[in-house]
Amino acid sequence: MSWITFKMWVPLKLFVAIWLLAQGACDAWGYEDNEISSCSLSNDLIKEIEDYAPIVHNIINMTVNGTYKRSTWQELSTFVDKFGARPSGSQVLEDSIQYMLNRSLNVNLENVHGENATVPHWVRGSESATLLEPRKKDIALLGLGYSVGTDADGITADVIVVQSFAELKTRAKEVSGKIVVYNQKFVSYGETVKYRSKGATEAAKHGAVAALIRSVTPFSLYTPHTGMMSYGENITKIPAACITVEDATLLNRMADRGERIRLNLKMEAQSYPDKISRNVIAEIVGVEKPNKTVVISGHIDSWDVGQGAMDDGGGAFISWNSLAILKSLNLRPKRTIRAILWTAEEMGIVGARQYIQEHRAEQSNLQFVMESDMGTFEPVGLDVTAPVEVMCILKKVMSLLTPLGDMKLRSPAEGPDIEDWINAGVPGASLWNKNSKYFWYHHTNADTMLVENPDALDMNTALFAAVSYVVADLSYDFPHLK
Amino acid sequence: MSWITFKMWVPLKLFVAIWLLAQGACDAWGYEDNEISSCSLSNDLIKEIEDYAPIVHNIINMTVNGTYKRSTWQELSTFVDKFGARPSGSQVLEDSIQYMLNRSLNVNLENVHGENATVPHWVRGSESATLLEPRKKDIALLGLGYSVGTDADGITADVIVVQSFAELKTRAKEVSGKIVVYNQKFVSYGETVKYRSKGATEAAKHGAVAALIRSVTPFSLYTPHTGMMSYGENITKIPAACITVEDATLLNRMADRGERIRLNLKMEAQSYPDKISRNVIAEIVGVEKPNKTVVISGHIDSWDVGQGAMDDGGGAFISWNSLAILKSLNLRPKRTIRAILWTAEEMGIVGARQYIQEHRAEQSNLQFVMESDMGTFEPVGLDVTAPVEVMCILKKVMSLLTPLGDMKLRSPAEGPDIEDWINAGVPGASLWNKNSKYFWYHHTNADTMLVENPDALDMNTALFAAVSYVVADLSYDFPHLK
Predict the structure, then answer these.
(1) Of A23, A390, B173, B191, which sits with the fewest C-beta atoms within 10 Å of its C-beta?
(2) Where in chain B is the domain with CATH 3.50.30.30?
(3) What GO terms fall under cellular component here (chains A, B) (predicted)?
């Protein structure tokens, strides 16, 4: 997922909180399912949901123990091993999209097509940083998405190390002509990522010539992390890259000793004209209400490092393979289930925003939207943003999933690509999973198939398949939040 | 520490076991101190040891809470930040040795001098591996110590992936002209490192042109590990490097799919004529028996990646700073305490072997030899190889260390640099610490100050200072094992 998610959740959460207060429905928005205390589903609806137990258990059993065991891992590993990293604007991303369109046809999915989206084309090129003083040393780095590059000789300048934007401001007079190194503490991704996204702009305001930001991670094995950044308006664009926690702390210690630190930074990074990419669409068309739709989704693009197996290969493939399994099991619900593999999420939720905008007219037909983009480790349940009635139905649906363990609900949903829908009131959910190590791998060369566990992928696939099927087949149309 | 340690412990353990059976003293060699069940120290000796409690508590208190709190971390970080990696044969290693000689003089240590040792001079140079088929991809690697290089164009060849030497043998006819990739499972360092040390030789026997070995580690963030290898006699020397767990498993999956794998490997690695290096010696000369000596030690050299802060900066500095603290506290024991910072351990225990050989004549004067080279995480106690009487004394000494926790004894000692002494019967100990993540960092760019915790360093320093002081001051001369 991209940084924008976190940036956007602050106002969204505020909005949701205010809305809930207005509705007097706060009691339905606890962080654990046992806090949904005011459910009063009709006996008919309870019975209807309970009657899905045999189908749900078959979906789970076939996915976790039966014919489809390890199939998500197989599909995902074949895909990411074949294509590797799939950055926005690249031919390899388009090839991987074409592959998934073909694969969708091969497994008889319906309405298989790509929908065009205009996407950015930023290319890293080669890059290097070399500490020149107090001693010579290579500094591992990863340039940040949208960063400008340097000229061929690079930028050679003295370094100032700061630990916060506050310190940068206090020492503003020392910054001009220097490379600013941010050695900010890792608090949480949501809190700390601002240094990656805004570090260059804040440094440039005081005349810095480049910004090197400590990678946003709680753990490092000399692991640089990339990610998106953006430039403020009317601010000089200076090159920005992340360095390792190890080197950021080393430079900080050198600075604390009063040593002069001098560094050469070379980056070929460049933005090229936009390209046309595609969101991948595949469906099982509903038998009674084909225009009513449940969406299951993840993004197909990745950063240009690693394999994008975790971010977001896992999410894309539990979504896509859920649909393939339902199709293979000849399960056709009343409503349509649509798998979407979003393009260019990493460069700013680009594919999803265009798709959602272009499909505003049909938005009221969306029954439920699901996304997985925070890891596909062992599942815990779903993060949901929805009206209380929907929460209550989902709670009952989750009780059918006991073969997967005690699957829980929590609020709110956390999906970047479905965010615009959630903001518009569409009921939605993201995968809640045991992702405590997610940011160890995030946006690094370590985002490979080794992160993905076949059994966890099976469980997540079963969860997505079962929930999407039941929600798509229920007699009850989900209300929207506004 | 280097791989040879583990290779050598098998015959050593066997020898020790046979010796013990012969002595009928097996009951004294348990793995926990409470298994030393047959101790019968004289009341005088018990009283003598107990009387050290105030001195020991002062050493611990001053090191962990007082004047010297964080001093080991300060000394170590100043050192490794200044010099970085310190490979055998390099000028930077010699500079770092000179620095420690000067630093030893600065803190008034005695008999400060270097003792020459002839050391290997292997230089990595630049190196790269590029997957050419089934798709183009950079493969991170670290060439192995003593490996030959390639010519400037590198080696371009098909790849065969095997998971074991047994599989290599079974598929021997497929190997000729190929690059062998070993994707062996990680069992333990001692068990698995044979692929790194012998992989090239075994592959060359069947006509392979290069060997790429999965890094020997239980955990990776796309982290290549280096280390030593050796060539068998009369075997063609082929280039050898470690690749990441991620890439070894990727190549294995590609091979499993029947894909042709083609790779280009470039390595400038080269061995140059030996150089003269120095073991660093510093002492507090004993007041009653100056020729009788307790040694505390770690190695000053490192691999040419990372900072060598863990391997073995931590071990070297808890040893050296123990002596500096005892000196600063004006504690002069009956016997001499000698700190030794060994040179060129990583290239085959080179400095220590020469030192020990050259000092065979005085070997009988060694009271006790200590080493730390398996991490300086939180201490657990000591790994000891010694006669039962010495074990019993040490058990009593450890009971004085309660301010550090419940410090334990275990057998045998595990130190590469003191190995020749242990083999010769000198009583010795290595630091036992909570090093479960040691091999995550071992021989990588991630071996930096971030691995080292100031409080753990203080505790380990206090442990080494207290034990070495008491053992050097006791009335009792330790017997040797033979």
Answers:
(1) B173
(2) 125-268
(3) endoplasmic reticulum; extracellular space; Golgi apparatus; lysosome
CATH architecture for residues A127-268: 3-Layer(bba) Sandwich (3.50)
Taking the Cβ of residue B220 and every Cβ of chain A, the question of whether any pair is shorter than 8 Å is answered with yes
Instruction: Please choose, from the candidates A147, A158, A131, A121, the residue with its C-alpha nearest in 3D space to the C-alpha of residue A239.
Output: A147
What would the two tokens of residue A231 be?
A: 């430039």
Asked if B446 and A246 come within 8 Å (Cβ–Cβ), the reply is yes
Closest CA relative to residue B210, chosen from B245, B243, B249: B243
Burial class (CB in 10 A: 0-12, 13-18, 19+), B475: exposed
- Angle (CA) B278-B280-B286 rounded to 5° is 140
Alpha-carbon gap, residue A369 to A372, rounded angstroms: 11
What is the nearest CA distance from A444 to chain B, expressed in angstroms?
8
Of B219, B246, B444, the CB nearest to A222: B444
Residue A345: active-site member: yes
Q: Residue A445: how many CB atoms within 10 A of its CB?
A: 24
Which residue of chain A is at minimal alpha-carbon distance from B223? Answer: A221
Is there a contact between A316 and A309 (Cβ–Cβ < 8 Å)? no
Residue among B81, B222, B449 minimizing CB distance to A446: B222
CA-CA distances (angstroms) from residue B305 to A423, A446, B129, B309? 49, 19, 18, 11
Q: Does B221 contact A134 at a Cβ distance shorter than 8 Å?
A: no
Tell me, what's the pLDDT at A482?
Answer: 76
Active site residues of B: 345
User: Hey, are the CB atoms on A449 and B222 less than 8 Å from each other?
Assistant: no
- Homologous superfamily (CATH) of A4-122+273-473 is Zn peptidases (3.40.630.10)
Task: Flag if B245 and A450 touch (Cβ within 8 Å).
Answer: yes
Q: Which residue has the tokens 């140059």?
A: B272
CB-based contacts of A447, cutoff 8 Å, min separation 6: A302, A303, A305, A306, A307, A308, A309, A310, A311, A441
User: In chain A, which segments carry CATH 3.50.30.30?
Assistant: 127-268
Segment 284-303 of chain B within 8 Å of chain A by CB: none
pLDDT digits (tens, 9 = 90+) for B158-213: 999 999 999 999 999 999 999 999 999 999 999 999 999 999 999 999 999 999 99
Residues of B in contact with A257 (CB under 8 A): 78, 81
Roughly how many angstroms between the first and final C-alpha of chain B, as a whole number?
A: 26
Cβ-based contacts under 8 A for chains A and B: 85
Gap between the terminal Cα atoms of chain A: 26
Residues in chain B, how many? 482
DSSP string, B315-339: HHHHHHHHHHHHHHTT---SEEEEE
| Whether B84 contacts chain A with CB within 8 A | yes
**What pLDDT, in 10s, does the model give residues B96-111?**
999 999 999 999 999 9
| CATH class of residue range B4-121+273-473 | alpha beta
A71/B contact by beta carbon, under 8 A:
no
Bridge pairing between strands B428-433 and A335-342: unpaired
Does A134 touch chain B if contact means CB atoms closer than 8 Å? Answer: yes
Interface test with B, best of A307, A450, A453 (most B CBs within 10 A): A450
The alpha-carbon gap from B69 to the nearest alpha carbon of chain A, in Å, equals 18
What are the per-10-residue average pLDDT scores of chain A (482 residues)? 45 42 38 61 96 98 98 98 98 98 98 98 98 98 98 98 98 98 98 98 98 98 98 97 98 98 98 98 98 98 98 98 98 98 98 98 98 98 97 97 97 96 98 98 98 98 98 97 85
Q: Which chain A residue lies closest to B251 (C-alpha atoms)?
A: A81
CATH number for B125-268 (one of 1.20.950.20, 3.50.30.30, 3.40.50.2020, 3.30.930.10): it is 3.50.30.30
Q: Where in chain B is the domain with CATH 3.40.630.10?
A: 4-121+273-473
